[in-house]
Amino acid sequence: MLALLGVALFVSFVGLGSWQLQRRAWKLALIERVTERVRSAPVAAPGPAQWPQVDATQYEYLPVTLSGRFLQHKTVLAQAATELGSGFWVITPLQAADGSQTLVNRGFVPASERQAWLPESGTSASESPQQTITGLLRMTEPGGGFLRDNDAQQQRWYSRDVAAIAAAQGLDRPAPYFIDEGRPNLARGAMDSAGMDSPVVPAAHAVWPRPGMTVITFHNSHLVYALTWYGMALMVLVAAVVVVRWEKRRGAHKTL
Questions:
Q1: Between the CA of residue 30 and those of 36, 38, 75, 129, 214, what are the distances in Å?
Q2: What does each C-alpha distance from 36 to 29, 31, 125, 193 come to in angstroms?
Q3: What is the largest CA-CA distance in the chain?
Q4: Which is nearest to 78 in space by CA: 170, 183, 1, 148?
Q5: Residue 118: pLDDT above 90?
Q6: 138 and 86, same structural domain?
Q7: Residue 148 falls within a domain, yes or no?
Q8: How many structural domains comprise the chain?
Q9: Which DSSP string do the residues of 173-196 spell out, in sequence order?
Q10: What is the per-residue pLDDT across 30-58, written as a single tens digit (0 to 9) for each?
């Protein structure tokens, strides 16, 4: 029974280590693919006919352009933690000529600017000039934050849940994705440290909201996990050797 248990543990640990190596290869390929995608030339944002095909594999972080008018009175603020500190993302629907609406994350504002960007109750649609924005296509973030739920009535958003925000703001033709306005600076090379288009500006001199702060992160600890599993497999082998030697010594002792 002890031998069977040892064999089972050894095979399981080796299998888990090999699976982590496969995951690492997949993650590295994903990082390379997204890096190339972020650096590619912007294309037109997917329209209503393409919405059913939009998924993270093909579209996440894709640079896109979109034209329309901002619906300022339907702006919401979602909590954010950035290299500039804690604050909020300013999210405003952009309505295209065909009547469809796309949520646009216009950038970051510190907590001191929250009230200035909240639309006043009872305000009507303001005429916004036609404009074209460029940014990265992002997939919806359903639900709320950790142990927190979005509260539409109190205008408290902990995640950029496209469907929930669209319903709360009465959007009748919302896109299933949102756009982070601006493009991050990847000149520093690491996908987990994407910065902004320009150096950090002190809050006292900054113009809000601040776009281009998308952080592109891919947690990649699969090599560490693989080595851990292989190490445990090696420990099983060492334990097996120790047990075998102990049994041999015990058998020799009984013979004497």
A1: 10, 12, 33, 38, 17
A2: 11, 9, 39, 16
A3: 101
A4: 148
A5: no
A6: yes
A7: yes
A8: 2
A9: SEEEEEEEES--B-TT--GGG-B-
A10: 778 778 888 899 999 999 999 999 998 88
List the alpha helices (DSSP H) in the chain: 2-38, 56-59, 114-117, 162-168, 222-255
Write the pLDDT tens digit of every residue in 59-109.
999 999 999 999 999 999 999 988 889 999 999 999 999 999 999 999 999
In this structure, the answer to whether residues 156 and 251 fall within a common structural domain is: no
Q: Could you say which DSSP state residue 80 is in?
A: E
Tell me the pTM.
0.72
CB atoms within 10 A of CB 59: 19
Between helices 222-255 and 2-38, what is the axis angle to 10°?
170
Q: Which pLDDT belongs to residue 196?
A: 37
Q: Where is pLDDT greater, at 102 or 184? A: 102
Tell me the residue range of the domain where 9 lies.
2-26+221-255
33, part of any domain:
no
Same domain, residue pair 121 and 235? no
Does the residue 150 lie in any domain? yes
In a domain, 211, yes or no: no
Give the position of tokens 């907590």.
111
